[in-house]
Amino acid sequence: PIDGDHHVSTWVFTPEPLEGPVPLLLCLPGGSYTKAYWHLEVPGRSGYSFGEHMAAKGMLVVAVDHLGTGESSRHSRAIELTPEVVAGANAAMLADVLARAADGTLLPDVGPIEVSGTFGVGHSMGAMLAIFQQSLHGSFDAIAPLGYGTIGPIWDPAPELGKGVHAPTLEAIMAQARSGALDEPFAAPRTMPAMRHHFYWDDV
Questions:
Q1: 182 and 176 in contact (C-beta within 8 Å)?
Q2: Rounded to the nearest 5°, which phi and psi values hold at 175?
C-alpha cells in the first residue's frame, strides 16, 4: 500500500552438494540489523556465519534486508512501514524465491531446487515479523521466533542497576514515527547514545 516500486534484498546460501529436496530457512534480522546478522564476518576469525553453517547442514538459507534497511529499498515515511507492510513485502519476496528455485532461476549455474518445506527464523524484531507474516500470509511450515516475547518493548531491562535505563514503549516509538522523527534521512548507528543503551553495557 506504499507508493513507488520497492525491492527486498537477500543473500542466498545453497547446500553443497545440492541433492534432493531441501528445507528453506527465511532468516529475518532484528531491529537496526541487516542480513549481515546471519552472515557475520569477523576479521581473523571463521565459522561465525549462520547462513554458511546451515547450508553446510543441507539447508537453503535466505537472509533478508527488510524494507527500509540494508540494501532493500528505502521509504521516506517510517510510519508507513508497519509490520503488516514489511511482512507483506517479505511474503511476496519468499513467493518469488520459491518460484525461482523451482524453475532454476534463483541462482546462476545452480538449476532447479526442490524445497521440502519453508521455515521462518526471526531474531527479535525479525521474530515479530515472522509471526506477522505467518499470521497474515501463512508463508511457513513452521516458525522459530527467537528473542521476542510477543508483548512489545515495555520492560525495564536492569532495574536493579538504578541507571534509569528503560526500553521504549511501543507508543513512544509510534509517537516518534508519527511526528516524522524517524523518517528518511535517518541514521541511528549503534554508536549513538540513544541506541547504545538498548544494546550494550557502558564498557562495550
A1: yes
A2: -65, -40
The Cα 18–Cα 109 span in angstroms is 12
115's grid cell:
524445497
Q: Half-sphere exposure of 183 toward its Cβ, with a 13 Å CA cutoff? A: 9
Total-model pTM = 0.83
Nearest Cα to 121, choosing from 22, 73, 58, 51? 51
- The secondary structure element, H or E, covering residue 128 is helix 125-137
Q: What's the rounded Cα separation, in Å, for the pair 94 and 18?
A: 20
Give me 80's grid cell. Answer: 508507513
> pLDDT digits over 18-36, tens only?
889 999 999 999 988 999 9
DSSP 167-182: PPPHHHHHHHHHHTTT
CA–CA distance from 134 to each of 12, 45, 81, 83, 180 (Å)? Answer: 21, 36, 18, 12, 29
Cα–Cα distance measured from residue 31 to residue 125, given in angstroms and rounded to the nearest whole number: 5
